[in-house]
Design a protein that fits this description.
This protein is α/β, with parallel strands linked by helices and about 350 residues long. The protein is about 45% helix and about 20% strand. The protein contains 13 helices and 15 strands. The strands form 3 sheets. Strands 1-13-7-6-5-3-4 form a 7-stranded parallel β-sheet, with helices on both faces. A 6-stranded mixed β-sheet has the order 9-8-10-11-12-14. Helix 3 packs parallel to helix 11, helix 6 packs parallel to helix 7 and helix 8 packs across helix 9. The chain is globular.
Length: about 350
């Protein structure tokens, strides 16, 4: 079963309600095994951790784990593919019952994920394709993230412009977003990709900024930068601002954080729009999907959290300054982007 936007709309509630539920964990009698007793242990095995998005994602994982009484172990490979694979084995040795694999490379994580399954451990994967039918895939609907941002770019700039594109192949969410970019270029013959660049070297924003400086010098005809990851967009904005091109170039991205909001709200900011979910909600969803597996339930193979478009104008008109404000969450809920699956036995819908 695939959890789609339509189905999520029927079995979900917004972040405010979800947060309220997490503050009042269910009584032990209400929890299915193994959550009716203390001692459930899970691991979060991370590939990417740099940037506000991943900090917010981690906060969601931690909050939902705490609400369920889960002992959470966080293993961070810092973009070392071989180390991330080894960390799955470390998690197995720790005796965890469940593992969340967060990002990574298919070639390094496919076998590692299978080793965990073979050891009897429940596994979910966020934004990494481990090519395993037994492992649910959590994602933000990456194709929609790219589509929403690019539709706004066409709306703002017309159907003919020269673009710089920030991309690193081999990362599942970026590969899915790239598919949409390829489709848009086919649809609009006037959109020309004159430069492609990108890196995940830490610190990512500064490393991308170094590349973007050279790209802007070599291609002064660029009018749009498509940077479908907010750390990429931050780096591009640094270079655009330094070159004094903030009034001549528009940046379109994916993902959102409080620092992103501040950057988009700056006077004459080049950062025109982003498409995003709330990463903390995605972290919550990852834990809830894993918890459902541990409780013997089926979250479906594809658990998709739908995104929404957030423009610079939205942030200014609604006076949104950070992600913690009720105004921001209300905005996302009205756009339908705050859906959070309710896994029946774990959290009955007390709001209904």
């Amino acid at each position: 079963m695939s959890i789609t936007r339509r189905l999520l709309g029927k079995v979900a509630l917004g972040l405010a309600g979800a947060t309220m539920l997490m503050q009042v964990p269910a009584f032990a009698a209400d929890k299915p095994a193994p959550f009716d007793k203390p001692g459930v242990k899970i691991a979060l095995v991370r590939y990417l951790s740099t940037g506000d998005f991943f900090q917010a994602y981690l906060s969601g994982v931690e909050a939902q784990s705490k609400a369920l009484g889960i002992d959470l172990r966080v293993l961070d490979s810092r973009q070392d593919a071989a180390l991330q694979s080894d960390m799955v084995d470390q998690a197995i040795a720790l005796g965890v019952q469940g593992i969340i694999i967060q990002h990574g490379l298919t070639e390094s994580m496919k076998d590692a994920a299978q080793r965990a399954v073979d050891a009897g451990i429940k596994v979910v994967a966020f934004d990494v394709n481990v090519e395993n039918p037994k492992i649910p895939q959590i994602e933000q609907s990456d194709r929609d993230l790219a589509r929403l941002a690019l539709e706004q770019a066409v709306k703002d700039n017309g159907e003919s412009w020269n673009a710089g594109y920030v991309y690193v192949a081999g990362i599942a969410p970026l590969d899915r977003r790239n598919e949409t970019w390829v489709d848009v270029k086919k649809k609009y013959a006037g959109i020309k990709e004159v430069a492609m660049f990108g890196t995940l070297d830490n610190p990512i924003a500064n490393s991308v900024a170094n590349q973007a400086r050279s790209v802007l010098t070599a291609h002064p005809d660029i009018k749009v930068m498509f940077a479908p990851y907010d750390e990429f967009a931050k780096g591009v904005k640094i270079a655009v601002d330094e070159a004094g091109l903030n009034k001549g170039i528009k940046i379109y991205s994916a993902d959102i954080s409080t620092s992103d909001i501040a950057a988009m709200r700056e006077p004459d900011s080049a950062w025109a729009a982003t498409a995003a979910t709330n990463p903390a909600v995605v972290g919550q969803v990852s834990v809830r999907a894993l918890a459902q597996l541990l409780a013997g339930e089926d979250p479906g193979h594809n658990v998709v959290v739908p995104p929404t478009l957030i423009t610079q104008k939205d942030l200014i008109d609604k006076d949104i300054k950070n992600m913690e404000e009720a105004t921001f969450n209300d905005f996302l809920m009205r756009k339908g982007a705050m859906y959070l699956p309710l896994f029946g036995k774990l959290y009955p819908d007390k709001a209904g």
